[in-house]
Amino acid sequence: MFAFREKSVDLEVVRDEFAVLFDANYSSYNVADVFSCDETGIYFDAPTGQILSEIGQSSARTAQQKLSARLTAVCTVRGDGVKLPLLFIVRGGQNGIIEKDELPTYPKGW
Asked: The organism sits in which domain of life (predicted)?
């Protein structure tokens, strides 16, 4: 059976002390100045699970065909409930060029 190392009464004291300390340090912040964000990986261009090949021919894939492309999406919301636009992070090279033709709504000047 699972047991806490400290009694629940002691844990409640720790929680209450932390709440007082947290409030003292951060209560001056406006709710709109507090952000919560999370990131998630998105895979696309994944190879199919089946390969078609002629009888007697190799069905091996190239290294490029075995991998799927990946990007990271960052989701952020302010403390007042306003959701910020998604931030997409893609793999690229230093001083690389962004393909603007793939996204017709890409902001001008970027």
From this structure: Eukaryota
Beta strands in the chain (DSSP E): 35-44, 69-78, 87-90
Tokens of 82: 């306003």
Q: Are 66 and 49 in contact (CB under 8 A)?
A: no
What tokens does 79 get? 């403390």
CA atoms of 88 and 69, how far apart (whole Å): 13
Distance from C-alpha of 41 to C-alpha of 73, rounded to nearest angstrom? 6
Number of neighbouring beta carbons within 10 Å of residue 70: 14
Residue 57, amino acid: Q
pTM higher than the cut 0.85: no
Q: Which candidate, 106, 81, 87, places its Cα nearest to that of 39?
A: 87
- In this predicted structure, the answer to whether residue 2 has a pLDDT above a threshold of 90 is no
**pLDDT over 60 at 103, yes or no:** no
Contacts of 33 (CB under 8 A, 6+ apart): 78, 79
Is the pLDDT assigned to residue 64 strictly greater than 60? no
